[in-house]
Amino acid sequence: MVLELLSQRILALMQGFFHIGLRVRRNEVPFNKYLFLAYYSMQKKYYFIITGIIIIGTTAYYGFLRDPVVIKNYPLGGETIVVFGDSLVEGIGSSKKGGFVALLEHRLQKPVSNLGRSGDTTETALGRVQDVIAEDPDLVIVLLGGNDAIRRVPLEMTVENLRTIIRTIQAEGAAVVLLGVQGALIRDRFDNDFRVLAKEEGAVYIPNILEDIYRNPSRMFDGIHPNDEGYGIITNRVYPIISELLTGTYYE
């Protein structure tokens, strides 16, 4: 993020000098030799230096400084998949039963167990974790939190409930994929905490699966649930990651 912001600032600065030089050439502004020299210094002398710094910094960040998440129980021991969650997992709003879970099963050409229950919060889902364990899964996709937001459950409680769910599943040998969901009307208040939680617990994290779906009438069945098009978009976001996990080619 820091490097990205630095790159944007440097690019904006260089573009500014470029436009200044262009306006001088066109006699749109009075000639100023110091400004003109600064423009050419930036364009000719420092361009490659700045580019080199950005490249080296980016390489260092991703190669040495960035701490990759170590996914617990990965590579997988098998291909038994369970999706655990609320009405978004159950598929409310889709014309065919199962929503994105059914679409994912079709794309993978493998059975995917749907343990979605409408209305579940992270707290009520805790009481159903043993249903997940009973499936003897190798990979569990967890999608919860939307109803916590609706009921204004404190964020800390939501996160700790999810932590317990993730740890309970992992203790039985399964890898966990945590799906992000928009936790507020305007902005996604869950994203940072869910991301940190996934990293701390060694789970795969897929950010806000409702991005560009929620509050888009053409992709929503009602005020909460996607329609077929919306569930199709969710499937497109989830499928590549699950496919990589199953084939052992996933890399954080």
Automatic annotation (TrEMBL):
Keywords: Membrane, Transmembrane, Transmembrane helix. InterPro entries: Ester_Hydrolysis_Enzymes (IPR051532), SGNH_hydro (IPR013830), SGNH_hydro_sf (IPR036514). Gene3D superfamilies: SGNH hydrolase. SUPFAM superfamilies: SGNH hydrolase. PANTHER family: THIOESTERASE 1/PROTEASE 1/LYSOPHOSPHOLIPASE L1, THIOESTERASE 1_PROTEASE 1_LYSOPHOSPHOLIPASE L1. Coiled coil: none annotated. This is SGNH hydrolase-type esterase domain-containing protein. GO terms for molecular function: phosphatidylcholine lysophospholipase activity. The chain crosses the membrane at residues 46-65. The lineage of its organism: Bacteria, Candidatus Ryaniibacteriota. The keyword Transmembrane applies. Pfam families: Lipase_GDSL_2. Residues 83-232 form the SGNH hydrolase-type esterase domain. It comes from Candidatus Ryanbacteria bacterium CG10_big_fil_rev_8_21_14_0_10_43_42. The keyword Acyltransferase does not apply.
